[in-house]
Amino acid sequence: MSYSAGATDVSSMRALVIHRHGGSDVLTLEREWPRPVPGPGEILVKVKACALNFLDIFTREGMPGEVTPLPQITGGDVAGVVHAVGDGVVRPAVGDRVLLDPSWGCGTCEYCSAGHRPRCLRPRMLGERDPGGLAEYVKCPAAQAIALPHGYSFDDAACLPVTFGTAWRMLRRASVEPDDVVVVLGAGGGVAIAAIQIARLMGARVIATASTDEKLAHACELGADHVINYVVQPEWDTVVRGLTGKRGADVIVETVGASTWAESIRALGKGGRLVTCGATGGPIGQTDIRYLFRREQTLIGSNGWTHNELLRVASLAFQGKLRPVIDRVLPLERAAEGEIALERREVFGKVIIHPEEPDAA
Ligand SMILES: [Zn+2]
After folding, report:
1. From the CA of 165, how far away is ligand 1's center (Å)?
2. Residue 115 — pLDDT band, cuts 50, 70, 90?
3. Band (64; pLDDT cuts 50, 70, 90)
4. pLDDT tens-digit series, residues 120-140
5. Residue 243 in contact with residue 183, Cβ under 8 Å?
6. What stretch(es) of the chain map to CATH 3.90.180.10?
């Protein structure tokens, strides 16, 4: 079998492919995978950086009720350079540096029509239903491209969509007001890192929880006013009530699920809003319903972001008001190692994958 480098063979590329669902061992490095061809209205982007997310792990393992077409390439958070454009594409142009909004809707269902893309009946997502960025090239509709300002790095840009987009919508849906007490759980995670900074930008007082003092020190650097080590203080809800003069939190940013849910309900004060975007720690949580009605609490689900929300939060990042945090950068062939570190929560911030071969032009 002959081997052609992606840089010289225009029809193939290197890609990390999932042929079947399973553990990190199913990630297969293919050196001659068919390179996508942009259709009308689409662009082909040479991937410079792709950030990993829990979604990549869930997609690899297979999610109940979510059909992933196989073989598949994961990786939703992509920044790169426009390599080719399909018919009818006016913007962006070949050579433009872009960040990709990885999700889009059908544009025609009742939810898309009402501007609620996250509720679309036929949602599309790079790295989930559409081949993603753990490959040298990725294609998507041209409208998904967001121009990168001069000097803004591909690595920082790749950190933005999934975590900052998600956190922005969560805090907006939770109607965070200046001086609110916002508790952000699991401060090593990408959404939490974004949520701490966004809540501060909105004028809130932030309490962050994490499993190690090192992560808590990072959370303080990002703007957390108080931090709680939940391993040392497993009854962190009591600590929150203590820090707030028994008032409780106004908003809790939940990304964990089963292992924190009961405490989250208890830590939430009167009129409090608990907003959740995921359940990496398990999907079934226990709700003491008495808290809900006595304290008039509200449970809010949040699913992704709209394009306008991502534009807004990306703009704040481009201005330097929000800061992506990168834990490590790995080549494509070591992406599995990055996913394992993410699963074990051994990271603070994003794992960035560079799909280009180190010696490629
Ligand atoms: Zn739709």
Report:
1. 19
2. very high
3. confident
4. 999 999 999 999 999 999 999
5. no
6. 12-159+324-354
Token pair in block for residue 207: 């309490």
**How remote is the CA of residue 170 from the centroid of ligand 1, in Å?**
20
CATH class (in words) of the domain with range 164-301: alpha beta
Give the other-Cβ count within 10 Å of 330's Cβ. Answer: 17
Average the pLDDT over 30-46 and give the result: 97
For residues 80 and 100, give the distance between their C-alpha atoms in angstroms, rounded to a whole number: 8
12-159+324-354: which CATH topology? Answer: Quinone Oxidoreductase; Chain A, domain 1 (3.90.180)
How far is the centre of ligand 1, averaged over its atoms, from the C-alpha of 155 (Å)?
A: 30
Q: Which residues surround ligand 1, an ion (CB under 5 A)?
A: 105-106, 109, 112, 120
The more confidently predicted of residues 65 and 287 is 287
Task: Give ∠ CA 53-59-63 in degrees, rounded to 5.
Answer: 125
Task: Give residue 119 CA to ligand 1 midpoint distance, Å.
Answer: 7
CATH 3.40.50.720 domain residues, the chain:
164-301
Q: Ligand 1 centroid vs 60 CA: distance in angstroms?
A: 25
Task: Please tell me the distance between residue 122's alpha carbon and the centre of ligand 1 in angstroms.
Answer: 5
Instruction: For residue 201, count other CB atoms closer than 10 A to its CB.
Output: 16
